């Protein structure tokens, strides 16, 4: 593990300045108290440079939602991105089973992401993704477990680059954290967001 961390430090030391600045902003961003976050191993083949964070919304001993955010950078630019940076995310949460039948659920979840970005005045482009809902029912030796439903959001977008070619990654991280908290069923933290609907979450231990 120490060798891996040493290798990460060496890679960061030789990375382009815009990427180092973007990562530094992610590392120093202030988070909501309900969030626990730490760096994790990024994917190795999606871009020349990558940095990843994983996070969970925690209530006591229970994780209400979890997710991963990856920052990609290709100094040469990427045709599909229309830029040199890309943010990629996965967000998951358990739901009350009846929520999974709401036909508006996917549209609402996607609007949380775009709304969190636009409410902060963040420029972005080439957004794409999926919202998936799934249900599990248990039988036989597992029949005592209640039915479980899960929402999963996969998305990516290109953050607009600012001064020196560096995107405002701290604000993009704040928007992503707000999405994670909304999916977890927490009320919005930002002023003026009180009208946003959150999902009621299952309270109690969840089968994994």
The sequence of SSEs as H and E is HHEEEEHEEH
- Poorly predicted ranges: 1-7, 191-208
What is the general shape? elongated
Instruction: Tell me the domain tally.
Output: 1
Distance between the termini: 26 Å
Tell me the total number of β-strands: 6
What is the topological layout?
Elements: H1 2-13, H2 17-28, E1 35-40, E2 49-59, E3 62-78, E4 83-95, H3 105-118, E5 124-136, E6 148-159, H4 169-183
Antiparallel strand pairs: 1-2, 2-3, 3-4, 4-6, 5-6
In short:
The protein is α+β, with helices and mostly antiparallel strands.
Please provide a written account of the structure.
With 208 residues, the chain is α+β, with helices and mostly antiparallel strands. It has one domain (2-183). The chain is built from 4 helices and 6 strands; from the N terminus they run H-H-E-E-E-E-H-E-E-H. It has helices at residues 2-13, 17-28, 105-118, 169-183, and strands at residues 35-40, 49-59, 62-78, 83-95, 124-136, 148-159. A 6-stranded antiparallel sheet has the order 1-2-3-4-6-5, with helices on one face. Strand 3 and strand 4 form a beta hairpin. Helix 3 runs antiparallel to helix 4 (169-183). The radius of gyration is 18 Å and the shape is elongated.
């Amino acid at each position: 593990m120490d060798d891996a961390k040493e290798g990460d430090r060496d890679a960061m030391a030789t990375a382009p300045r815009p990427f180092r600045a973007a990562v530094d902003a992610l590392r120093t961003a202030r988070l909501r108290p309900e969030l626990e976050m730490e760096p994790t191993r990024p994917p190795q083949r999606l871009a020349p440079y990558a940095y990843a964070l994983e996070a969970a919304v925690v209530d006591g001993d229970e994780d209400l939602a979890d997710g991963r955010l990856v920052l990609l950078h290709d100094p040469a630019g990427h045709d599909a991105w229309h830029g040199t940076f890309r943010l990629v995310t996965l967000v998951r949460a358990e739901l009350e089973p009846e929520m999974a039948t709401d036909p508006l659920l996917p549209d609402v979840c996607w609007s949380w992401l775009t709304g969190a970005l636009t409410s902060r005045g963040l420029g972005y482009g080439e957004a794409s993704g999926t919202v998936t809902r799934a249900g599990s029912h248990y039988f036989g030796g597992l029949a005592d477990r209640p039915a479980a439903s899960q929402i999963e959001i996969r998305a990516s977008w290109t953050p607009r680059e600012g001064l020196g070619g560096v995107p405002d990654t701290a604000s993009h991280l704040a928007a992503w954290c707000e999405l994670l908290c909304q999916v977890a069923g927490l009320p919005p933290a930002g002023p003026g967001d009180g009208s946003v609907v959150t999902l009621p979450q299952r309270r109690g231990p969840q089968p994994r």
